């Protein structure tokens, strides 16, 4: 009896393996040359829907080939991780350089000097961090100094889980460093900022929900495009009058949202050429106009100027000038035992 | 051995055991051992570093504490549900019975968002509590509520069939022998139900410790205050620290397995005592 059952175990395992082999053969046939997968982060969903439509048309004109572009959206870090783990993206368009750098160091499917592959550190559009406050600005929040005052409720996501939150943090940090010169004072400043938080959502969209829907806090630190989106949603819901206002601080961070070709995947799928054309398209006049329409700041100076009502001028500083590089900034602030950990640990004790 | 096989020997024990072992290794054993191998790359000192981190310890207390409190609440709430559903007939009973399964079928994130909407300071219930200084969303209380929600069907669904099968004669004879209602309940009915109550509660507890979707919305995720363990795993992954993330997972796994094992032992002893 026992011998027989052992035999059956082997036989059934063999059957299972056979079935798996069949499944994998079928999935291989799914490759095709005329599909492109763009792995991106959350707030770009609407932007790429429009970009893709326009690019497919222009590609058809140029090469006569049909093209399908698939989109994948999620938290920037989560998306980078999916690419590292084998999601076959042809291009990545993420929220921070650090996420593309970690694809380089963890899987090597993006080349090391990706930042030089396209103009402007491979950043076709950028954004910045602004404040969203309640209608009439009852707490009179004008600049970063007002945000850290005692009694102000600040909503920002957790820098440990959100790319956008890292931009928020670094924007405050950069301001404090410029304003107060010394590192101790800057630490004190950021500490006060996080003393004012009562909710740390895992992502930027979550924070917007907390501020807008739950009515918590006096000021939301948000991407410029996210703030504009919240405004227009609020206008729609309240018959044209928004319940919020956007406040532009005197200075904020230059939030570069870089793009890169995932060379290894593109080479394997034979899509290198179209992937490059796709990212180049973002730099064209047509692409830049769509970008401006979706509240990301375009690189093209003329188009930026034409949209000056949408994008008020403010002083932007680069993370490279305050911390040297993204890798250095990450290590100093967000890695375990970094400044954020110590700031938060003390702020809440 | 033969004795065990004999009653069902016509139904091909070998093939079904083979499939069971195969699927179990494909879905459970191999992924879980990968977890251990991945965390083993940290080494003993690395693992110790993970466990001794302040934030992780606080999240550990919170996850297991809130999970425990919610499980105890579920023990009573679930029992009450099962009791009402089995013992009484009333209009709408079928609907109520199916509603119990909702937490199983609903995506937990949806539950989390719905609960947060209600209990947030400007929410449907929250706005009446805020004037009295009671805060639910973004505090550990909110976490407990989310865990009660996702856990109570476990207790209901394990107790319900046992309660249904309980022979009526047991209670009748107890009554005939002069037992009071309270005595009948505590000496006759309850002992029969204890094993299934324990089983249901422990499942609700296990589910609660690992729950992510519903809790991240209502907890507020403040480090050291309302940050749960699964969130820390996500945090570590977000920093590409795969080994540390699996380290926390292993810690959770070992702790919950120990607790489950203990409860199983108690449950076995309880059912054995009944004979």
Task: Describe, in plain words, how this protein is organized in 3D.
The complex is a heterodimer of chains A (349) and B (275). With 349 residues, chain A is an alpha/beta fold. Chain A has 17 helices and 13 strands. Chain A has helices at 2-28, 45-63, 76-84, 97-107, 119-122, 144-147, 163-180, 183-195, 204-212, 224-237, 263-269, 272-283, 285-293, 301-306, 319-323, 326-334, 339-347; strands spanning 35-41, 68-74, 91-93, 125-127, 129-134, 154-155, 219-223, 244-247, 251-253, 255-256, 259-261, 297-298, 315-317. Chain A folds into 2 domains: 34-123 and 258-283, Periplasmic binding protein-like II (D-Maltodextrin-Binding Protein, domain 2); 127-255 and 314-348, Periplasmic binding protein-like II (D-Maltodextrin-Binding Protein, domain 2), CATH 3.40.190.10. Chain B has 275 residues and is an all-alpha fold. Chain B has one domain (40-272): MetI-like (MetI-like fold, Orthogonal Bundle). Chain B has helices spanning 2-5, 13-40, 43-52, 54-87, 93-99, 102-105, 108-119, 126-129, 140-165, 168-176, 181-210, 213-219, 229-238, 242-274. In chain B, helix 11 runs antiparallel to helix 14. Chain A binds chain B through residues 1-2, 4-13, 16, 75, 77-78, 81, 84, 102, 106, 158, 160-161, 197-202, 206, 213-216, 334-336, 341, 344-345, 348, and chain B through 1-2, 5, 9, 12-15, 17-19, 21-23, 26, 53-55, 116-117, 120-123, 137-138, 216-217, 220-225, 231, 234-235, 237-241, 244. Chain B: It is found in: Cell membrane. Chain B: Its main location: membrane. Chain B: This is Sulfate transport system permease protein CysT. Chain B: The complex is composed of two ATP-binding proteins (CysA), two transmembrane proteins (CysT and CysW) and a solute-binding protein (CysP).
């Amino acid at each position: 009896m026992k011998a027989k059952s052992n035999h059956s175990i082997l036989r059934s395992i063999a059957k299972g393996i056979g079935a798996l082999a069949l499944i994998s053969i079928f999935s291989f046939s799914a490759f095709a040359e005329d599909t492109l997968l763009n792995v991106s982060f959350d707030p770009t969903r609407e932007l790429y829907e429009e970009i893709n439509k326009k690019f497919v048309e222009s590609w058809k004109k140029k090469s006569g080939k049909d093209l399908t572009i698939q989109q994948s959206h999620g938290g920037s870090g989560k998306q980078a991780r999916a690419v590292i783990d084998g999601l076959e993206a042809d291009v990545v368009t993420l929220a921070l350089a650090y996420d593309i750098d970690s694809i380089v160091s963890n899987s090597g499917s993006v080349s090391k000097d990706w930042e030089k592959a396209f103009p402007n550190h491979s950043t076709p559009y950028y954004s910045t961090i602004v404040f969203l406050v309640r209608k009439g600005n009852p707490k009179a929040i004008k600049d970063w100094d007002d945000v850290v005052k005692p009694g102000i409720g600040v909503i920002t996501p957790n820098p440990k889980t959100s790319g956008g939150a890292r931009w928020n943090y670094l924007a405050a940090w950069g301001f404090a460093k410029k304003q107060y010169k010394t590192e101790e004072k800057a630490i004190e400043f950021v500490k006060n900022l996080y003393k004012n938080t009562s909710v740390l959502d895992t992502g930027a969209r979550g924070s917007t929900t907390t501020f807008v829907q739950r009515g918590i806090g006096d000021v939301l630190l948000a991407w410029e495009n996210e703030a504009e989106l919240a405004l227009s949603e609020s206008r729609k819901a309240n018959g044209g009058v928004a319940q919020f206002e956007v406040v532009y601080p005197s200075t904020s961070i230059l939030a570069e949202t870089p793009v890169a070709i995932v060379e290894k995947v593109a080479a394997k799928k034979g899509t290198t050429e179209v992937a490059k054309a796709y990212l180049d398209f973002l730099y064209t006049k047509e692409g830049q106009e769509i970008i401006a329409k979706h509240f990301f700041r375009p690189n093209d100076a003329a188009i930026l100027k034409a949209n000056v009502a949408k994008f008020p001028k403010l002083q932007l500083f680069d993370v490279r000038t305050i911390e040297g590089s993204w890798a250095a900034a990450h290590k100093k602030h967000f890695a375990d035992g970094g400044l954020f950990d110590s700031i938060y640990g003390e702020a809440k004790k | 051995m033969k004795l065990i096989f004999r009653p069902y020997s016509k139904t091909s024990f070998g093939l079904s055991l083979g499939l069971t072992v195969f699927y179990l290794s494909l879905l459970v054993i191999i992924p879980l051992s990968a977890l251990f191998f991945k965390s083993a790359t940290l080494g003993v000192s690395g693992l110790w570093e993970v466990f001794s981190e302040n934030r992780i310890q606080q999240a550990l207390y919170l996850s297991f504490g809130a999970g425990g409190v919610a499980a105890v609440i579920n023990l009573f709430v679930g029992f009450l549900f099962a009791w009402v559903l089995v013992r009484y007939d009333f209009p709408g009973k079928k609907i109520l019975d199916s509603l119990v399964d909702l937490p199983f079928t609903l995506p937990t994130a949806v539950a989390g968002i719905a609960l947060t909407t209600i209990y947030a300071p400007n929410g449907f219930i929250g706005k009446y509590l805020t004037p009295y200084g009671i805060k639910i969303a973004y505090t550990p209380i909110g976490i407990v509520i989310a865990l009660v929600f996702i856990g109570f069907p476990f207790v209901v669904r394990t107790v319900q069939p046992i309660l249904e099968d309980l022979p009526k004669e047991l209670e009748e004879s107890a009554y005939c022998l002069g037992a009071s209602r309270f005595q009948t309940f505590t000496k006759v009915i309850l002992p029969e139900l204890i094993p299934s109550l324990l089983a249901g509660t422990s499942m609700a507890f296990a589910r609660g410790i690992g729950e992510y979707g519903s809790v991240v919305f209502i907890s507020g995720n403040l480090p050291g205050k309302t940050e749960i363990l699964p969130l820390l795993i996500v945090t570590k992954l977000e920093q590409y620290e795969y080994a540390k993330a699996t380290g926390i997972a292993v810690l959770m796994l070992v702790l919950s397995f120990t607790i489950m094992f203990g409860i199983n032992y108690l449950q076995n002893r309880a059912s054995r005592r009944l004979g």
